[in-house]
Amino acid sequence: MRLLVFLILFLCLVGCLPKSVSVSTANVSDSTIDPNLVFYGINSTTNKTDSTVVLNWSTHSEAVSYEIYSVVSGVPILLTSVAGKSSNTKTLTGLRPGAEYKFRIRMKNLSGSTDRNVKDLSVKMNPAPLIPTNLSLITPSSTTGYTDTPIIRVSGVKKGDIVNLFSDASCTRLVSSGTANGGSIDLTTSSVSVGAYNFYANSTNVNSASSDCSTQKVSYTRQSCPAGSSLYDLDCYVSFTGISSFAKNTDSTIELTWPAHNDAVSYEI
Predict the structure, then answer these.
(1) Least buried of 18, 69, 236, 269, by fewest C-beta within 10 Å?
(2) DSSP codes of every residue in 25-52
(3) What stretches of the chain show up as alpha helix (H) in DSSP?
C-alpha cells in the first residue's frame, strides 16, 4: 500500500514539472544543508511568456553553483544546476501555457553543502497563442478596390506573438506576418492578383507553437484597372507618357511631340 502511494505521488510530481527540463527526482537532503550559509534565494521572475520564464537571484561569494527547484505540493524537486559563482539568471523553457509554477533557488558551496532558504516565487504562465477573434479591412475602405496590397487588421491577439495572415481557410497560404505589440496588428499583404479573396489568421509563439486558424475572415476583391490606365498606390490613373521629344527649336520657338491617347479630347501644355 505504501509503495502504491509513493508511485502515485511520484507520477504527480513529474507530471507537474516543465516538459523540457532534465529532472532529478531527489529532494533536498537535510544532510547537505549548512545552517550557517545565508543566501536569500530567488529575487524575481522576468520575461514571462506562455512557455518560458527567466529566474533571477543575487550572487553569493561562496557559491560554486546554484540549484533551481520546482516546488510541487510543498516538495522541492531539483530541475537544474547553474554553475559559476557569478551566475545570477536562468531561462526555463518548455513550461505549460496557463500553468502555475513555484520556484526555489539555493546556492551550493565547494564542500557540496547548500543553504536552507525556503523562499519560493510563484508564476502563472501566459495562455497559449490566441486564435484571432476579428479581421477587418483597413485599406482600402471598401471590400472591392484596385490596390494589390490591402491592409488587414487582426484583433484578439497577444503581445509578443507572431500573427500570420493567410489567403485560405486552412491557414497554409501565407501572405503576411508580424509581431503583435498589443491586442491587434495591421498587416499589409504581399501582392495579390486580380480576383476575390478571403483572409484568415493564426498566432504563433516564440517556440513556434501555433493557434488554430481563425473562423473569422475578411473579404476583398481586387479589380483590374480600366483599359488605358495603370495602378498607382491605391487607385488607377490614366496612362499617358507625356512629351516624347522636341525639335525645330529656334531662339523663340520649339516643337513638342507626344504619342496620342485614345481617351484624350485635348492635351494641356
Answers:
(1) 269
(2) -----GGGB-TT-----EEEEES--SS-
(3) 2-15
* 110: DSSP letter: T
What is the C-alpha separation between 123 and 186, in angstroms, rounded? 31
Give CA separation, 12 vs 16, 191, 243, in Å: 6, 52, 82
* Residue labelled with grid coordinates 536569500: 40
- What is the pLDDT at residue 30? 54
CB atoms inside a 10 Å sphere around CB 96: 15
pLDDT tens profile 250-268? 778 888 887 887 667 787 8
3 burial level (CB within 10 Å; 0-12, 13-18, 19+): exposed
* Terminal-to-terminal C-alpha distance of the chain: 102
The pLDDT assigned to 206 comes to 76
Identify the three-state secondary structure at position 14: helix
> Strand 235-238 vs strand 245-247: parallel, antiparallel, or unpaired?
unpaired
pTM: 0.54
**pLDDT of 243 higher than 90:** no
* pLDDT of res. 11: 47
How much is the pLDDT for 104?
A: 97
240 class by beta-carbon count within 10 Å (0-12 exposed, 13-18 middle, 19+ buried): middle
Which three cell numbers, joined as nine digits, stand for 143? 471590400
Rounded distance, CA 102 to CA 18, Å?
11
Give the pLDDT of residue 13.
Answer: 47
